[in-house]
Amino acid sequence: MNGVSGRMGYRQHLVRSILAIRDQGGIELPDGTKVTVKPLLVGRSEAKLADLAAQHGIEDYTTDLDAALADPRWEIYADFLVTKARASALRKAIAAGKTIYTEKPTAESVDEALELAKLAAEAGVKTGVVHDKLYLPGLQKLKRLIDSGFFGRILSVRGEFGYWVFEGDWQPAQRPSWNYRAEDGGGIIVDMFPHWNYVLENLFGEVKTVYAQAAVHIADRWDENGEHYTATAEDAAYGVFELEGGVVAQINSSWTVRVNRDELVEFHVDGTHGSAVVGLFGAKIQPRNATPKPVWNPDLEDTHDYDADWQNVPTNDVFLNGFRQQWEEFLTSYATETPYEFDLLAGARGVQLAEAGLQSSREGRKVELPTLSI
To answer: In whole angstroms, what is the distance from residue 211 CA to residue 209 CA?
Structure first.
């Protein structure tokens, strides 16, 4: 596990996924047998790794990635590094013949991401890319609505994501400063468009075109040491996506927005037979036969309670932490030698959308996305 000292690598992948699987005694495979996990922590700071290992009862850690990859005891390479460092590490893991499970974006360019997917395929290496938002309880409820035919024909999707990230002068910023430096791989398009790609393609249809407007709304920021710097990467992006089948999606992503919604991310889906609004956990619906009939009249105050027209979707399932659920699915696929859908090619499609979004913003036009293949 390379990069576990970072926020996401530590909290979601190490503690809430791998250690949770280890501590429950592993996961049960379809044939009734069990497979468990043993982590090897890899990073640059031996002191940090030693502290994490002692804290969580982990026997193995190292600062030597090459030695770890050369050791046959370790079967899976998991990557949670910053984006700029990821591709070179994945190349090493592929050359070592390791199974790979990695965060996204998988590379800094679509050419590099596609090259990694090809190298893995040629080497016969099994790969998995984190698609965590598909496993959110709200989006799993949305998937159930789609599969049941609730919407009829889906017309459009509107997404709102984001929150206010403090500039770092009078309150510390809650995101690392590299997120705001393009030269360090920062920017909300690179961060979020790979997410939107897999959400859209797995729920509504393949993304065919994108029009995006990026913005650096706040240029003056202060880093972790209180030093001023000028942001060179966008802190907000406004995207319009055309999907196969004619669905139109609009998604706003921003670290400069004050939240006035139930959750930090919400998707509003409209269809001919009904609509839904879903977030991280919640989901509410409005079917066609319970839709009100508003009339526009700016001369009279509208006292209708539109929120009351929506019905909450019950939580009929037990939802695991999304990162852990995907880890369990990937480990099961690895142990049973079955195909895994969310591979490096899927990761390359996410990088492709981010790259196209940046191009669209630079050139002020809609950009088409060709179908990627190995």
So the answer is: 7
Check if the beta carbon of residue 107 is closer than 8 Å to that of residue 345.
no
**CB distance 100 to 119 below 8 Å:** no
Instruction: Report helix, strand or coil for 4.
Output: coil
Query: For the segment 324-360, what is each residue's pLDDT rounded down to a tens digit?
Result: 999 999 999 999 999 999 999 999 999 999 999 999 9
Distance CA 90, CA 344 (A): 10
Nearest alpha carbon to residue 202 among 259, 249, 150: 249
Distance (Å, whole) CA 209 – CA 206: 9
263 vs 278: CA distance, rounded Å: 9
CA-derived radius of gyration, the chain: 22
Q: Which amino acid is at 74?
A: W
Rounded CA gap, 12 and 175, in Å? 16
How does pLDDT run across 9-19, given as a tens digit for each residue? Answer: 999 999 999 99
Q: Which helix (H) or strand (E) holds 252?
A: strand 248-254
**CB contact at 8 A, 159 and 196:** yes
Greatest alpha-carbon pair distance for the chain in Å reads: 75
Query: What is each CA distance from 279 to 36, 181, 262, 284, in whole angstroms?
Result: 32, 29, 8, 9
The overall pTM is greater than 0.85: yes
Query: How would you classify the pairing of strands 311-312 and 367-368?
Result: unpaired
